[in-house]
Design goal:
47 residues, alpha+beta, globular
């Protein structure tokens, strides 16, 4: 398995780090993945 994917209730598909950002946001821990939204950190996560 190389990628994580999540199907949202509205039919949209989240992939990779956005799956975890969404899941943590739902349980009140969105702040944990907030730094991953920064462009410089996102660049390292994708590689």
């Amino acid at each position: 398995m190389e990628r994580f994917q999540a199907l949202k209730s509205d039919g949209l598909v989240n992939k990779d780090i956005k799956v975890f950002q969404g899941a943590y946001s739902l349980i009140g821990l969105g702040w944990f993945y907030a730094p991953a939204k920064l462009a410089i950190i996102d660049k390292f996560i994708k590689h």
